[in-house]
Amino acid sequence: MMKKRKLFFLLLIIVVIVIGFSIGPARKKARQHVNYMTAVDDHPLNCLSCHLYTQRSGFLAKMINASYLSPYNLAVAPNGEKLFVVAQEGNALLTIDTKTNRVVDKIAVGTQPHTVLISKDGTRAFVSNEWDDTVYIIDLGTSEITDTIKTGNGPAGMVLCNNETTLYVVNSFSNEISIFDLNTKKERKRLVAGNNPVGAALSPDGKQIYISSRRILPHKYRTPISIEITVIDTKTERVTERKILNDAYLSENVSFTPEGDLAIATLIRPKNLIPSIQVEQGFMMTYGIAVMETKKNGRIVQLLTDQPNSYCSDPFDIVITPDGKKAFVSSSGADIITVIDLTKVRKLLAESSSEQLKQYANNLGVSSKYVIKRISTGANPKGMKASPDGKYIYVAERLNDKISVINTETLDIERTIDLGGPKRITVARKGRRLFNNAGHTFQKQYACYTCHPDVGEDGLVYNMAGVGMGRNVTNTQTLRDIGDIAPYKWNGHNQSVYKQDGMRFSTFLTRTEPFAYDDLDALVAYIITGIKNPPNLRYNPTGKLTDAQERGKKIFYRTHTNDGKEIPPHNRCYTCHPPPDFTNKRLEDVGSLAETDDTIKFDTPQLNNLFNAGPYLHDGRAQTLEEIWTTYDHGDYHGVTSDMTKDQLNDMIEYLKSLRDAKFYENVNVEEEVKKYNAK
Amino acid sequence: MKHKYQALFFFLFLLFSVFVVSAQEKKTNYGNTPDEVIPYGGFHKAYIDFFDKPQPFTGAGREKPEPAGLKEIRIGYLGPLEGSVMVPQGIQMLQGAQLAVEEANKKGGYKGIPFKIMEHNDVGLWGAAANKVVAMNDEHVWAFLGSIDDINTHVALRMTLKLEIPMVNSGDPDPTLTETRIPWMIRVIGDDRQSCYALSEYIYKVKKLKRVAVLRVDNRYGRVGIKEFREAARRMNHPLVLEIRYAEGDTTFTPQIQRIIDSEPDAVLLWGNAKETALALKQMRKMGMNAPVFGSDRLMSPEFLKIAGKDAEGVVTTCQYNPNLDNPKLKAFQKNYKKRFGMDSDVFAAHAYDGMNIIIDAIKKAGLNRAKIRDVLTDMKTFQGYEGVAGKIIFDASWNDIGAIWMTEVRNGEFHFFPTPPFTSGKVACNN
Amino acid sequence: MDSLKQNRMKGVNLIIIVLLSFGLFGFSPGKRDTVSKKNKNSIPDTGEMPVYGNWKTFTKKDGLPADKIYCVRVDGDRVLVGTSNGMAVYENGTWKTYSVKDGLAHKGVLSIDVSEITGDVWIGTLGGLTRWSSGSFHTFTQLNSGLPNDIIYSVICDGKDVWVATGGGAGHYDTYSDQWDIYMERNAPMHEPWTYGVCAGDSKIFIAAWGGGVIEFNTKTKKFRDYVDPDEQMELDVFPDDGVVHDITTGVSYAKGILWVGTYFGLSWYDGAHWKSYFDHDSGLLSNFINYLKADGNVAWMCTDKGLSSFNGKTWVSYQKNETGKTGKIIVTKGPRIAEGAKTKEVAATSSICHNFVLGIDFNDNEIWVATSKGLCRGEKIK
Questions:
Q1: Residue in chain C nearest A625 by alpha carbon
Q2: Which site among A429, B403, B406, C65 is 20 to 30 Å from A338 CA-CA?
């Protein structure tokens, strides 16, 4: 009886709401609300698009969303009979029978697995769990995890060498390579890699390992950028060379030719020093490969995979066929696999002068000399592997939950393997596909993902030219966990993600038609539904602060300077950066205004997971957290720090590095913290 | 025949040596230490005395030729110019140095090339004084003057050996500054060791007081400055009845004063900056503590008189010079300084003027070569007995100025200067 | 002045004059034996102490960027040299210089160490700490990182940890956690944060603290202890062998369970239980003014302002350049101290260290490299 009554009232409320919003003043209010939130006056009045599909927790969120597998990287058994697929969202290692094209095993692994390796005898798998800081060693006979190896932060690419007695693990967040003795399972040493290293490849002779990296190296502000390919000697286990790829970033993977004379890495060439008006001229972001001669003082030549007026955005993986004739590049933002004829590349290298080779890096037409096909795939192709006999290339279609199989002779997709993920495409999944696809940008120049890799930020400073070119340069901001921290943009002009990604977005960024409203709603739903930050395992794995972090927290919440003077409330750390998001969501002046800035105040950024979000400040002028205060705060505008001793500043920064996702601070009472940390 | 010449030579050598020894000034104990307060004097002769002779500099550098084509001869200044309570003193020091340079330039500078002061503030964060010495090295200064704060001066001093830059200190009385054996610095101002000995002699011998309590600032100036007084007091058989500290910037001193009252001292010695010690004195008098008060050199300032008011009456301090001396050089300096800068000179200006003049003279004598400038500064001859506006400079073997300092007593709201009392011999009362 | 002591000084000077006169007539009752012509060039038996000779000098003329050499570090087949004008690398018989334009924090290079694990070179300069890793330079400064101060007097690698001695405190950088710790007067038993030397050994870090003696940090227990001059006086040392000879310490080195402490006032030796002091007047130490020291096995090398001394607890072997020319001498003192019966013998050498103001040293199996105020020199083991 009670249930029936409840149901009746619920239906009544729904009817009232529907009628209310269909006619009368409620509709007017709703229209005003939607207009305000979207900054347009013709967005459909659809409550569900905003208030249902952006649900982040609870029953409704579960109902409207789905758990996808998202295959990311893969490996092939030495005999070619099995395919092992890392399901990034499914947190699983899937085993596929390549004859039946069926998933025959699913082994639960750690969080956000990145890479899988298979031992030569096919009995063991090694899976790096990027968000757990572990590598699992799995007995493929029993599907049991036999060993868990503790790594550095963010294990990604791996290499087995020295008769499989040594395992190299790329720690992508802590910028190192860990070397493990597999007999003892003990870490032998760590070597410094580039910034955000990810992919690793062993040379055919087993003597060298190349490590690609994504984020740029420290450089002088507003000057050309570069990234590093780290070269390791497997005998001495030392870095022997740091190859620099100029004007490039986001090198996801690297691969050797069978002869070992060339190593080829994927890359992106951003033009972040020029105003974004350039998008309309094309050539804002270009994509390609770095061909590196492995001999001493070998050349490094950058070649584009793009075509004039059509770009192959976001290259991820590169696979070279066992015969060394073809290279396959997964252009994940264009949903294509770019096929490169390496014989033609070699010919080009042999015939071209050094000056010509330099120019090729900026020549969109040159790809016609070596790109022999662009094969369309399902959504967001990522990791690839060749079958041992070289007949097939397996491609992980991340946002399609499928593996496509390319015939290396015909260069067609011969078949597709369904991994068994959810069949329906949720609104957020649709948004995610849009986010990762460059199709909505002028000439498909870039996707949202390009500047927001992994939905974070790319560490570059851009001039989003709106009114004045060269003015208002801004540092890319993360899109992770931003649902609750409006306004958006550094100048705080956007009150919602709808506005941010709507008309203005097309005007300044995509330079083409704005998203259709259902696409915009899907994109917003994806962003708002909460894209988690990676766990802060490096600086705060358990929530228990170190002594230095605890001392730093006391400074963060301090109300008086070292000599007892009261700090004005507006100039205390916690005033503008209160938990849980560590932002007051207001515009503030921290003395960072540059001559080229229009506004005097900037949106207070959130501080969650800021440890790896450099550079800092609105225009990215501070390369490290220290520089915010030591170099760019003259006069205690950005909090009071001038009285601090060096160890106090260090402590405060250690505390800031410890900050995790907002969810960990939801119950923090600022007043109590202030009281606690200022008690005598 | 050969032996005859040897014997003759030996006789002449002997005769000459006796003559030289007789003609020398009598040797004093290290740092003018009275016999009575020599460390371990009543217990054991030291296995080794470290400062019985100057430390030579045996490194290279003297062979470097003088550079040609210079447009200016750069001399560094390192002192508090902003961001410190010592800025007024830093400005006095800079102005004293500027006056010396301007006068030297009027006389033709160095071979017609003007001297130029390269100013550096030593108050930057985190050991910045040493970084400033690196900056001065990059600017190619030939020597530098600095500083006042003992911490900043020490870290700067450490750099002088690495970079081989001569340093003249005219404002830091930290006794340990010249006790590091770095042979690149001389000091031209009396140190706290001299102040401590003068105060201990005056308090215990002249005034015959016995129970002294010390209220000092809790920083290096207070800790290191008072050390020699504490030890002298112990060795004179009057160990301190209390040594209590306050934090720099404190404005109330009630708990400390109550403890001083409870210790029933015959006298109180204040060691700190003018502001805090003046406030402490006022509160002391208000709380009924009427014992005589003595103080370190930093009390000798108008700020102390202004804050302490009538309570300052009778306070006795030390001072590294006497501005009222009837010394024509001093009078001329004071007159020129006031004319140039529109203010009266103080102790830091006077010593900086002397220090900069010594640097200028050393450059003129040695030429543009840092090692040779160092040699002249430290040869114990060229500037030994230098008659500066702040008095006669007498170096001991650590290049510390052990020349005369002065004492002052506040009478009718003014400082009255008088010489330090001569050390009287007393019975060694303590083993260490 | 009332405290003058004319009469006493007269007496002292007369004694000196008499002693000098004895010297003029060929008497030599002092600590050093006169070398007879017969065995003038024969080096006495030095036991386990190595002896070096056949010195070769390198200066700007040979390709170094400056003649003032602050430090030297042997790294396998190459030699890394810190000068006042950049870091020079000697490899395959040629010199190559790296300076600010290459990525070095400052041209003045005071200290260099090499990580045994990674091979990375850590370079302490006058303007920050630079990590040189396979051709790539990365600089830590007090403004862009947790580095205590930009002037790095000493840098060492201890496993994954890097330690620096600066005037702003001793800095510890954990290369795994990317965290800096600063040890200074507020969290360690120092009076001031002035640290000028650091070394590692047996899970301990030893820090030479200017005015604070030696600070020991146990990396396992994270506890500190300090070693200071027991007499608490700057101007004298009351007793030898009672502790570190002076609180102004300039360098520390630890090997085979022995801590060697250099000061500008003499040398200290500590075996964990007992201290010993060595001065120039009572032992084979060439000078009390020790710029730098380094222990290698049982032998410690003292870089002084009057030459290079080595000592293994039993025998001293020192190297000194003659005032003119390229010749020098080897001075062997058998026995730790004169009071313990030490005898000294000088042997003329046709080649010598390039300058007596010695600032740094390092060695490999058969060679020794010496950094001096004027040039770098290499000696070969001859005994």
A1: C144
A2: A429
Residue with tokens 């300090």: C226
Confidence (pLDDT) at B8 = 55
| Separation between Cα atoms, residue A320 and residue A204, nearest integer Å | 12
Pick from A482, A519, A421, A448: nearest CA to A609:
A482
Structure tokens at B334: 């004071």
B101 touches B75 (CB < 8 A): yes
pLDDT tens for B304-337 read 999 999 999 999 999 999 999 999 999 999 999 9
- Structural domain includes residue C4: no
Is position C268 within any domain?
yes
Nearest to A190 among C136, C144, C176 (CB): C176
A645 contact residues in B (CB cutoff 8 A): 125-126
Tens of each residue's pLDDT in chain C, 383 residues: 333 344 444 444 444 444 444 433 333 333 433 333 444 568 888 889 999 999 999 999 999 999 999 999 999 999 999 999 999 999 999 999 999 999 999 999 999 999 999 999 999 999 999 999 999 999 999 999 999 999 999 999 999 999 999 999 999 999 999 999 999 998 999 988 999 999 999 999 999 999 899 999 999 999 999 999 999 999 999 999 999 999 999 999 999 999 999 999 999 999 999 999 999 999 999 999 999 999 999 999 999 999 999 999 999 999 999 999 999 999 999 999 999 999 999 999 999 999 999 999 999 889 999 999 999 999 999 98
Minimal Cα–Cα distance from A89 to chain C, Å? 28
Interface residue of C131, C178, C192 to substitute, partner A, most A CBs within 10 Å? C178
Cβ C145–A626 below 8 Å, yes or no?
A: yes
CA–CA min distance C45, chain B (Å): 30
Residue C242 structural domain? 58-316+357-381
Q: Give the whole-angstrom CA distance, residue C102 versus residue C98.
A: 6
pLDDT tens, position by position, C54-104: 999 999 999 999 999 999 999 999 999 999 999 999 999 999 999 999 999
What pLDDT is stored for residue B141 in this prediction? Answer: 98
In a domain, C192, yes or no: yes
φ, ψ for residue B422, nearest 5 deg: -65, 145
Nearest to B50 among C25, C191, C235 (CB): C235
Q: In chain C, positions 152-211, which contact chain B (CB-CB < 8 Å)?
A: 153, 166-168, 191-194, 196, 210-211
Closest CA to C181 of C194, C166, C169: C169
Residue written as token pair 């400082």: B415
3-state secondary structure of B326: coil
The beta-carbon neighbor of B26 closest among C9, C194, C374 is C9
Q: What CATH number has the domain bearing residue C192? A: 2.130.10.10
Let me know how long chain A is. 680
State the residue for tokens 């009114």.
Answer: A467
Under 8 Å CB pairs connecting chains A and B tally to 10
* β-bridge pairing A208-215 and A195-202: antiparallel
In a domain, C175, yes or no: yes
pLDDT below 50 — which residues of chain A? none
Delineate the domains of chain B, giving CATH numbers in brackets. 73-190+326-401 (3.40.50.2300), 193-319+407-419 (3.40.50.2300)
Number of domains in chain C: 1
Whose tokens are 């358990």? That residue is A542
Chain B contact partners (≥3 CB pairs within 8 A): A, C
Q: Which residue of B has its CA nearest to A641?
A: B125
Q: Give the containing element (helix H, strand E) for C291.
A: strand C290-296
Q: How far is A583 from chain B (nearest CA, A)?
A: 29
Q: Work out the minimum CA distance from A539 to partner chain C, whole angstroms.
A: 8
Q: Domains of chain A, with CATH numbers?
A: 69-142 (2.40.10.500), 151-251 (2.40.10.500), 547-677 (1.10.760.10)
Whether B126 and A645 lie within 8 Å, measured CB to CB: yes
Length of chain C: 383
Size of interface A-C (CB pairs under 8 A): 75
